[in-house]
Amino acid sequence: MAHAHVQFPHPTPHPRIDCKQSYYGPGALRQRHYHDDTWIVFPFTGSFALTLRSAESLLSSRSLLYLPAGEPHANVFGSHGAGVFIAAINPSWINDRLGVVTSAGEMPRIAPAGFLEGLALKLYREFQNPDALSDLIMEGALLELLGRWFREKVYADRGSPSWLRQVKALLHDSFCNPVSLNQIASVAGVHPSHVAREFHRVYGMTIGEYLRKLRIEFVAERLVYPSKDGAALTDLALSAGFSSQAHMAAVFKRMIGMTPGEYRKAHGLHQSRDRTSIS
Q1: What global pTM score does this model have?
Q2: Counted domains in the chain
């Protein structure tokens, strides 16, 4: 049985970046193939299984896939199909701008929903509603997305002592509570200045920056998948460790590129478009 693949190309004037959105029907199958361009794939609804280098991964809504040019892969789409936004990039464009991480650019990678999603949403929003400046905005957002993504990989590959991994685990467990550098150092058993210096060296950001990242990821997740009691933004801000809703909104806007309300609305629009387009 054939499954529909409906593509909605929008005009993208940039000669090195070709953006499009596609809808794949339930159970659609794409046999092993490859692309001449590097692809960034953002599923905004549904899910699909990806077979890549003899391993299978599941990409759910809001995750991200980086697929280098020439990388063989196969796809099987889930029971509800999937809507995906794709940015196909000429490999030379990436090499010209991100040459310092060329080796990183040759490896496929998958990012779960989280910190990078705001940039993917910005790309998708500009694609849906283009104007005279969309070309420039999309190129900047794409460069920032790739830069952040590759930076995470570069720093994750650096060696870290066991006590520093304990510090990272502590931050994940207690990011919504006030925590001081002295308390963190006490758990690690090393001097506070050494903790701060080594954390930045290994993870590429300060402890405070990392805490803000964890808090924003927590907020983003709750905005898309709210609890049954429908907590207000003020309660969400406090539960994430922010001093107020205004503080949360300011940090969210700075890190994600849109306000919490815009972020939630963007996901609502995705769901609405999906119901209209594949029914």
Answers
A1: 0.64
A2: 2
